Each structure stands twice: as C-alpha cells, then as structure tokens.
Amino acid sequence: MDLHLKGKVALVTGGGQGVGRRICLDLAAEGAHVLVNDLFSERANAVAKEINDAGGKARAAVADITDEAAVDKMIADGVASFGTIDILVNNAGIIPERREKGGIPPKFLQTDPAGWKKIVDLNVYGMLYCCKAVLPGMVDKRGGKIVSIMSEAGRVGEANLAVYSGAKAAILGFSKAIAQEHGKDCINVNVIALGAVSHEGIKDGALAPSATPENNERLAKMLKAYPISRGLNRLCRPEDVSGMVAFLASDRAAFITGQSIGVSGGFTML
C-alpha cells in the first residue's frame, strides 16, 4: 500500500531512540523528510544519519520541548530547511521514576509536586507547545496530520501512575478538541495508546530486548496482561507502533480524526 508520504515533512519528538526512532525510520522509508527531535544531540544526530545513509532525508532537531521558545525556534528552523511541516508526531514522554525494589512507582500520596511538574511539563506542555507552533502553518495550507502517543493509563487510569495517567488523559482530551476545531482545515488529529514497549533504549529489566519469559520472572507475569502477548510470547516492539503512525500520518487515513487507537496487545479494549 502506497501511503503517499513522499516529500511530506514530519517532525517526530523524542525521535532519538525506541519508538520515536522507529517512527522516524519508517516515515523516512515511506519517502517523508524527517526532523528528528531529541533533547540529546547525539541521539538525534545518530538517527538523522541513519536515515540519510539509507538514502532518505533527515535533519536533527535538538530542542527541549518543555521550553516554548526552543520549540518555536525548532519549528522555524525546520520550516527554513524543508519549507513546511506536514506531520507532527508527539512521541516524547516520561514515566514516573520507579522504586529500586520491585520497580513499582509510589502511590500518589507518596509523590511530590516537583515530580508532578516533570511529568506534566513533558507529556502535556511539550505537546501543547509543538501543536501551537505547527498548527498555523497547517491551517494556512489547509492540511496536516497530528499523531500523539499516549498510554493506556490515560484511557483507563492505573494505580501508582496517577499523575502520569492524568497527563496522558490530557493528551486525549486536547486531541479530540483540536480535531473538532480544525476539521474544517482538513487537519487530522489522532492518538495512539500504548502499553509496555520493549526497545533498545532499555538496557535491563523486563522491558529490555534481551528479556524473555524464561529468564525474567516479571516479564512472564506481564505477558499475561496482554492477550496477544500470550500467543506471540513477547511485549510490544517499536515496529508494532510505527506502522500505525505512518498510516495515520497519511491520506489513507483522511477520514479518521479525534480517535484513540490502542496498539497495546489488547491490554484494554475500548
């Protein structure tokens, strides 16, 4: 299926590793020009080089997306380089810090406002700043795609992840509202909800690529929460997500907007 993404310009936040990296690579493979955002220049540059070495077209877009001025500059630089931004993928996010023993985050009453702010700033304000920066250009040309990555915790709530659940739920509510406001401008706004994802940026524990149900007891327990994992015997991987992003970023999804789509192995079924 040709997604007709050749020559489209995509900005992917948190594109330096894991799910974000795979999204960048797959969009580039479909012919899109990619702005690889990451807070860490070595990550962004490495992914951009990976794309360019494969014959694609990409540039690193190093910026802290919790800084509105930095986001505005990143968007301006991206437009100066590629002429426009057709696709925004809000992928950057942060999860609560987990306790060393057992790897379980603390309950809400055991957390503090400094930790709340860190979670909300990246998951919510980072997305808001990026959307505000790209929307005027999309409105002017009457077209654009915004795909935001959230968590199933934001759709159903999850104990020990109260602030994170709330921040991810904000992504969904905001996206539905923006989809309504900008449908008349032919701008599609959708959300992908994830569960646990194993990727190369995680070096140890149940989510590390080297973990198997045989060598990691926690992973064996986690697989039971995902219906399709019971058959595939694995957790979600970045390539399970990136194909859905590419589809929603394409005109094949022209009549899909304001939706939350779970790519979480059936963790929740809404």
Automatic annotation (TrEMBL):
Coiled coil: none
Pfam families tied to this protein: adh_short (PF00106)
Organism superkingdom: Bacteria
Alphabetized InterPro entries for the sequence: NAD(P)-bd_dom_sf, Sc_DH/Rdtase_CS, SDR_fam
Family: Belongs to the short-chain dehydrogenases/reductases (SDR) family.
Full protein name: SDR family oxidoreductase
Natural source organism: Piscinibacter gummiphilus
